[in-house]
Amino acid sequence: MSVNLFDLNLSQLEKFFTKIGEKPFRARQLMKWVYHAGILDFDLMTDFGRALREKLRAKAHFVLPEIISDKTSLDGTRKWLFRYGCGNSIETVFIPEDGRGTLCISSQAGCALDCPFCSTGKQGFNRNLSAGEIAVQVWYAKKLLGEFDTKVQDSRRRSVSNVVLMGMGEPLLNFAAVVTAVDIFLCDYGFGLSKRRVTISTSGIVPAIEKLRECSEVSLAISLHAPNDELRNQLVPINARYGLRELLAACQKYIDNNRQHGGIVWEYVLLAGVNDRPEQAEELARLLKNIGGKINLIPFNPYPESPYQKPSKNSVLRFQRILAENGWTTTIRKTRGDEIDAACGQLVGNVKNKMRKREENLNSNKVAVSG
Ligand code: SAH
Ligand code: SF4
Q1: Average pLDDT over all residues of the chain
Q2: Ligand 1: which residue has its CA nearest to atom 8?
Q3: Ligand 2 atom nearest 203 alpha carbon
Q4: Residue 126: per-residue pLDDT
């Protein structure tokens, strides 16, 4: 059976080459072609002899997703909708900033966790992405941004400096594939990113955080969104299974193992009138007092039929001020790429809404015709 080589990290590729009767060092050569030079055509891999190239053609290939849409907003945010066969569409978003660029990638098609403010959650779960389907998002973004093109000598050469798993899906519920993809991001023969620049965002799957501590040093962002279990049970339903005490204990252990990371990033989506009150900011500061880290405030990004409202600018600033008075460093996430629906899960959501509307129109036409 032919293998999708994007699915394999360095050690798996070494095993692959051994299995086909080749020396393991071929794995490093191959990775350099793919991840440093952006080359997928075995015939262009000039340090591979003809026999090896033929063997590779017979036993391996690279799978690229289909590009369903590719939009760039006025602020430079670029969003792709990729399809991996059988109607599984996912989003990848590139956010350029001064001197760097963050790529927000997806780990699952849909999500099973059903957080009520999240457009991906509303769509339900379709399937896990494979390691290669996760890794190729970075490869393809770099390709489409011209980063592999040696003739391009401007700042685009290092366009993707940070990767965050904050697109669609819960990364820690697709553990093995995510860890393999992260290996490819961090590996010197892969994308060679520093572990500070690769972040997994999770809603708090405690056993998986424990497991991650054993096998990876990637940075962690926790989607907290509430300062107590009662509210968090509503906003992040998985909290009913893994409550705040357990979650914070697992995070503390993660920090103790990875001191160099400067702690965890706590994400807090601000929903008007639900979790943006001054006393909730105080409570949040108290909750996290002993564990530290940074807080990233994310003003809610509304989508069609979303049951929550955006917080006012004043309430966002008030929330931030209270945290600052309690000694917290906070950032407020800027809304980027508004006009291209760059918030989590929105583009797929909109495509689905449009499809549903079209179906509804067709059905109502049918009714009209038969009536
Ligand atoms: N499942 C993971 C990663 C994907 S969600 C997680 O929950 O962390 C990435 C981030 O986007 C999370 O912090 C999530 O809470 C936030 N998010 C989801 N929908 C949002 C919306 N409509 N507005 C603002 N942030 C949202
Ligand atoms: Fe899933 Fe994260 Fe959305 Fe919750 S916020 S439904 S965990 S993608």
Answers
A1: 89
A2: 202
A3: 7
A4: 94
> Best-predicted range by mean pLDDT among 112-116, 211-215, 364-368?
112-116
Pocket lining: 209 vs ligand 2, CB cutoff 6 Å = no
Contact 202, 235 (CB under 8 A): no
Ordered by start, the domain boundaries in the chain are: 3-61, 66-369
Q: For residue 84, give the nearest of 116, 56, 61, 106 by alpha carbon.
A: 106
Pocket lining for ligand 1, CB < 6 angstroms: 111, 117-119, 166, 170, 201-203, 223, 267, 269, 298, 300-301, 303, 343-344
Does 1.10.150.530 match the CATH number of domain 3-61? yes
Measured from the alpha carbon of residue 344, the closest ligand is: 1
Q: Is 111 near ligand 2, meaning CB less than 6 Å away? A: yes
The CB of 170 under 6 Å from ligand 2? The reply is yes
91 labelled catalytic: yes
Q: For residue 301, give the ligand 1 atom closest to its CA.
A: 23
Nearest CA, atom 9, ligand 1: 166
Q: What is the pTM of this model?
A: 0.91
Q: What is the pLDDT of residue 334?
A: 77
Read off the pLDDT of residues 278-325 as tens digits, 9 standing for 90 and up: 999 999 999 999 999 999 999 999 988 889 999 999 999 999 999 999
In DSSP notation, 346-361 reads HHHHHHHHHHHHHHHH
Q: Is 344 annotated in the active site?
A: yes
Phi, psi (deg, nearest 5) at residue 294: -125, 155
DSSP bridge pairs for 69: 81
pLDDT in tens, 150-207: 654 454 456 899 999 999 999 999 999 999 999 999 999 999 999 999 999 999 999 9
Q: 299: number of CA atoms within 13 Å, CB side?
A: 17
Which distant-in-sequence residues (6+ apart) come within 8 Å of 312 by Cβ?
Answer: 272
Write the residue with the smallest CA distance to atom 13 of ligand 1.
223
Cα 236 to Cα 117, 175, 187, 272, distances in angstroms: 9, 19, 33, 16
Superfamily of domain 66-369: Aldolase class I (3.20.20.70)
